[in-house]
């Protein structure tokens, strides 16, 4: 039997993830060939600079002309692990227009422009796979796209950023302040020198957009994701949550509003989660995605959300699947027939809320506060009043209220906070945190 | 545009799962049609008896002649939720020979005869999907078969039987004996009147065979799975595990022996798992699958392992995928090019072991015991000696030893136990439990 013609593969990027992908393509070529039914041939690696030591890879493979590489016209598959919007976007569009299927780990690009990429894949009859773009090694795209496609997903809540999970973990277990925990994370290499994208939730928001699109069969753009980071989370927040049986996690949340005309709520914010909830025990740099659906009920997926080898694992799973599709002559258009739901304004999002503020300790004040909540249709689940002492005490405001509301909309809650601020018997600082999970 | 010809679907079984599948096929037909790109038409439901009330389903659909139903010749898809080997096996083979793709939730059948079914699917160019057969609603088949197909799975460990997990949970949290916990589970409907298949591990063993086959790209039969149930787990075992920082779980375990000629270890047994391990906190009727792979590292998948709606969710995910494959004219032969690895004898399996036995409390005894372990190449991690009092004490054997070994083979460990039994300074009862996870 003649040796079958190999499938031609180009790799864009040779950094932390790219070097692992190259390693697997080279070292595991026999296994991959057996699983695909045809060998893969790595024909080129697009890089920014050639003067970098890259052991184990034939130097002749590297090129700085990625645009020419993806436009060769004989490629079966292009793997993109550069990250960022450009030049990744142009390169992938060109690759697909030249007939290649695409595997990408680029969350920023998919979060900002899934529509154009999907459309280009469909128009050219090629595959666009991106398991590695959300939650690293955790298989979540196939479960949402395929395993649960006969079900109705109600909500997706994910710990999708390891840096913030590490920082919140340290604040919780070691009682550190945000600044000290961030410094430790930076020293250990868990946080970048400029940590903005992580701690302000931008990275999580890009992933939230992708998750919401997968879960609800619609297109969601990064700009439509409500986003609040963890830089304003205080030790007091963490301690108060702990005392009430909660931990604080930065969650990416996507859910539907009630029918009819269900729209997508999609948001990233620090969240109080009951200690008994499966997400509460996901610690350190691990990621986890929690899914609630009509028939399957509650599901959780946990694993490493970043790192070269874990991300490469997800990339390679896509590579094998796309290569098999290629051999069968069938691209797997999983977006067919999807509905277009709008994204609801954040004001329509509902959640339980925890609110902490100080009040004057005199008769009638508690009733006046309760009236403010009631005026805006926010009903109270628990109210806890404690007497403040010493340094924690602000002149005229001797009592602290810890309030847990029932489910209330962001709009109603904001109106409550405004009215509390205007009330003479309420101190200046009003802290609010959203609560999820049962 | 003319209405597209619907895909014809037959359902075998209308019990707990079947009635949920029928409900979804009927109530969600518009959504399913949108996701598939073509409507599904339920053309018949094979049942044993017609004289059963089945509200919401057109009575004309039911037939007791399932053999004729699957042999119609115009079916696109047959869904089998009868369970058991026959007549399910013959019906599915006939369905595939008549050109229909198959979705099944039948773990017993797949655990005993995956080879014949896979071969029949390939020979007839149809799909065989079975997400619901392992761990109910938890998406595990696609993650193992596709997401991790570019990686190397090292081990799979699963809590795949809700009944035994519930019983062990009750023994742990409420201090119940096995018999009392089993009775409670039966009263609550979590255990069958004849609980043998669950408590003796047979159900878990069938799932272990399927998981091992998926993880290691080979065929494993139920008869090749080493199987030990939980009926001999005592309150003392649970308490001793707790005291050492472990919980007891019934695990289905599949891993490879070392290269070269790596073979599959596949087994089901009560296992001590560290309390810090992700599997330790999976409680009640939940299932979970823990995966270790070369590149992805540690992953865990958690969800409901049984029940009508959760199982139907997994079935319907397969139905949509198979229907899409059908429309593309491409069956998804995911078994291509797989290797055939043998199953290793259980004696080759290695694990840490916990051993508890009573000894005479006199000088030299501990050294003599240690010598027995050393003679069989079993090295000790910790030895804890305690003095027995009152009723717990057997004449002549006043001290209890709690021993934790390093990794040792079952063969070596069995030799140790035999020699301990022969030693005059060791009491009659020697309790052993395997330990997994770090």
From TrEMBL, chains A, B:
The protein's annotated pathway: Amino-acid biosynthesis; L-threonine biosynthesis; L-threonine from L-aspartate: step 3/5; Amino-acid biosynthesis; L-methionine biosynthesis via de novo pathway; L-homoserine from L-aspartate: step 3/3
UniProt-listed Enzyme Commission number(s): 1.1.1.3
Gene3D superfamilies reported in the protein's UniProt record: 3.30.70.260, Dihydrodipicolinate Reductase, domain 2, NAD(P)-binding Rossmann-like Domain
Sites where the protein binds L-homoserine: 192
PROSITE patterns: ACT, HOMOSER_DHGENASE
Catalytic activity: L-homoserine + NADP(+) = L-aspartate 4-semialdehyde + NADPH + H(+); L-homoserine + NAD(+) = L-aspartate 4-semialdehyde + NADH + H(+)
Positions annotated to bind NADPH: 107
Active site: 207 (proton donor)
Keywords (A to Z) from UniProt: Amino-acid biosynthesis, Methionine biosynthesis, NADP, Oxidoreductase, Sodium, Threonine biosynthesis
CDD domains cross-referenced by the UniProt entry: ACT_HSDH-Hom
Binding residues annotated for NADP(+), in chain numbering: 12-19
Role of this protein: Catalyzes the conversion of L-aspartate-beta-semialdehyde (L-Asa) to L-homoserine (L-Hse), the third step in the biosynthesis of threonine and methionine from aspartate.
Family: Belongs to the homoserine dehydrogenase family.
Name of the protein: Homoserine dehydrogenase
């Amino acid at each position: 039997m003649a040796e079958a013609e190999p499938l031609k593969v180009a790799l864009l990027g040779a950094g932390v993830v790219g070097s692992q992908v190259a390693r697997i393509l080279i070292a595991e070529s026999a296994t991959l060939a057996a699983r695909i039914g045809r060998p893969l041939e790595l024909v080129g690696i697009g890089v920014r600079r050639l003067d970098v030591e890259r052991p184990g890879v034939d130097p002749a493979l590297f090129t700085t002309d990625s645009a020419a590489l993806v436009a060769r016209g004989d490629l079966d598959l292009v793997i993109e692990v550069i990250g960022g919007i450009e030049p990744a976007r142009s390169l992938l569009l060109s690759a697909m227009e030249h007939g290649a299927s695409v595997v990408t780990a680029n969350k920023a690009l998919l979060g900002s422009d899934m529509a154009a990429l999907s459309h280009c894949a469909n128009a050219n009859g090629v595959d666009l796979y991106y398991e590695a773009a959300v939650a690293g090694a955790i298989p979540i795209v196939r479960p949402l796209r395929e395993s649960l496609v006969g079900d109705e997903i109600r909500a997706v809540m994910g710990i999708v950023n390891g840096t913030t999970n590490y920082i919140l973990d340290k604040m919780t277990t070691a009682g550190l302040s945000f600044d000290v925990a961030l410094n430790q994370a930076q020293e250990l290499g868990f946080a970048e020198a400029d940590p903005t994208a992580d701690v302000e939730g931008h990275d999580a928001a890009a992933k939230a957009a992708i998750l919401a699109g997968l879960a609800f069969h619609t297109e969601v753009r990064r700009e439509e994701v409500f986003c609040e980071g963890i830089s304003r989370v205080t030790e007091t927040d963490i301690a108060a949550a702990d005392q009430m049986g909660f931990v604080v996690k930065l969650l990416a949340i996507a859910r539907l509003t009630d029918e009819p005309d269900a729209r997508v709520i999609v948001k990233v914010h620090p969240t109080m989660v009951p200690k008994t909830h499966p997400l509460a025990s996901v610690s350190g740099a691990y990621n986890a995605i929690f899914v609630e659906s009509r028939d399957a009920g509650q599901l959780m997926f946990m694993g490493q959300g970043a790192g070269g080898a874990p991300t490469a694992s997800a990339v390679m799973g896509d590579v094998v699947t796309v290569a098999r599709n290629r051999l069968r002559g069938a691209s797997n258009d999983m977006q067919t027939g999807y509905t277009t739901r709008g994204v609801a304004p954040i004001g329509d999002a509902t959640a339980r809320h925890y609110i902490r503020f100080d009040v004057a300790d005199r008769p009638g004040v508690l009733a006046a506060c309760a009236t403010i909540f009631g005026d805006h249709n926010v009903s109270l689940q628990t109210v806890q009043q404690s007497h403040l002492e010493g340094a924690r005490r602000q002149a005229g405001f001797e009592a602290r209220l810890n309030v847990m509301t029932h489910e209330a909309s962001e709009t109603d809650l904001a109106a409550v906070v405004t009215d509390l601020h205007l009330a003479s018997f309420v101190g200046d600082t009003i802290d609010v945190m959203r609560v999820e999970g049962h």
